[in-house]
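Predict structure. Chain length: 275.
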Amino acid sequence: MLWVFAGIALIAIMWELTKVLGTLIDLPFNTSDQAMPHIWTMFAAFPLPEVRGSDTTVFEAVLAATTSSLMLALGGFVIGVAVGLLLAVVMQRFLFFERGLLPFVIASQTVPLIALAPLIVGIGNQISFGPIQWSTTYSVMFIAAYLAFFPLSIGALRGLQAPTPTSLELMRSYAATNNKVLWKLRFPASIPYLVPALKVSAAASVVGTVVAEISTGVRGGIGRLMVEYARETTSQPAKVYVAVFGAIALGLVVAAAIAAVDALMTRNFPKKGIA
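Prediction complete.
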């Protein structure tokens, strides 16, 4: 935790030094107060009214938007992890599925998200399940899941294939079924690969949520709020950075949650440095 605060302090110092340097020499970017407000100016914008005459402060609006985006990111993360894990199990179990699906799984990540988001919204708005009508919010969650499933599927596949031939032969000597081998051997052996994959998937779900909110125009999330505040940079340039702080906080919350999962999943693993 101390290193986190040290990193934040270092970024703040570098920000202010860049502004000072911009007054001494010509830099290739704008360092004026309009483009790069002082750190204390950003924090001073927290208690300001979001809209003139409103009782809601900028901080409260950013907090609500960050919470909304967090729910969408978590939903997309859970869906993406479930799909990625299922694909990994299928590809590990059947070699022809791995050869047939893996190239498409990799190719799916080459499609630009900015171009994909409007297409998903357009198709999704025509989908309904009885009384349930697909909404743009579901599209944002779908895009987050779309980015989250890939790292998990690749990492899980590598982990499920990690057991040594000796371990597999031992399980066969016990007449273990494929399901037993999967749960008793392959899944435990895949944990060192799953945890990093979960971290990448969590980060991808956050990025997907924010970008999708900007691309689809969904209101209520931190991505859309950043766009709205960016329109006010002429009068309140520090306001947009409060929304950026919200997006950063969103990423930190998700990272902390995955760190907790990491500690839980690896609690019985031998610790480094212990004989």
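Summary: The mean pLDDT is 85.
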